[in-house]
Structure formats: C-alpha cells, structure tokens
Amino acid sequence: MENINHLLVVFTAYVIAAGSPGPSNLRIMGVAMNHGRKAGLALAAGVITGSLIWGVSAATGVSALLARYAEALIVLKIFGGIYLLYLAVRAARSAMTPDAATSSMPARTDTAPSSATLYRQGLIMHLANPKAVLAWIALVTLGLGPDASWREVSTILAGCAVLSVTIFGGYALVFSTAPMVRVYRRARRGIEGVLAAFFGFAGLRLLFSRV
Fold it and tell me: Is pTM beyond 0.90 here?
C-alpha cells in the first residue's frame, strides 16, 4: 500500500507538470486546430518521445550528470529560447495574415507540414527545454530512493509513458474536433496572436532566466 501511495504521488506530480499549459501543449493545440488530428498527433508524438528520452536519462543518471555542467544547460537554454522565438514569429505572421487571404481554403488556413516535420518539431521543442531536464530529475528523485530496483524504475517510466501519451495525445484529439476547428476558424488571428505573445514571452524568459 505504501508503494502504491508513493507511485500515486509521483504520477500526480507528472500529470500536473505535463498537463499544465506550456509551450508544448499550446503548440499541440494550435497545430491540431489549424491542421487537424493527424498533424496534432504527429507533433504530440515528438513531444512524447522527447519527454521519454529525458525520463530515461534521468532514471539512468545521465540528466543529473548533465545538470552538473552549467555550460550544457546554458546551450539548451539558448537553443530552446531561440526556437520558441522562432515559433512566436511564425504565429505572429499567421496572425497578421488577413482572413481573406485564407478564405479560399475550405478547411485549414495553410498547408500542413509533413508528419515527419511536425514530429521533429515536437522532439526538438522538448529536448531543447532545460526545464524538462530539471523536472524529470525532480520527479525521479521524488520517486526513487538510492536503493531503488530496476522494477521500480521501469514502473515509474512505464506509468509516465502512458500518462504522456494520454495527456499530449489528448490535447491533439480534443483540439482537432469539429467544434474546436470552427472556433479556430472564427478567431484564427486572435488565437495566433495569443500564441505569438506566449511563445515570445516564454522564449525571452528562457533566454534571460537562470536555470
């Protein structure tokens, strides 16, 4: 019973961390509404992969070793901040595009990137986020003691993998539904403007913050 309660604490912490609004979730929402379910799921798959890579790294001590070297986290911080600013510029350009310029397209506002491109974007977004490294280190520290067995490690990673698929995939599925797409089409410029502001703020905050 004690182990079960301990796992519940760990999984609850992961749900809060992964499910809270952030660059990855907002990007999945925007892509799903703009380009549809397949595109949203492709991006989500990249985010999930990145999360699991950091999870395995944290469980094996690799990310803890990485965190000891400030230079490595600084590189991640700069790369991640620049990438978020890149997303901000793209969203801003979309927000400034008049609706008349896209009204001839019946379902989406622009051509969707390939699934491989979206997967790569999601993967880069998560791997370039030093906060994800530190969050996984905290999560593993919370869930595993110094004498933790590989069975405990596997249980936590497997549980977080299931939760990751559920959360990020859920965002893609929910925001690709017809009602959400209609909302996006009516408020496209406003939504893209909000995303541009958020990505810009997040990028600048990441670049100028202390990790």
Answer: no
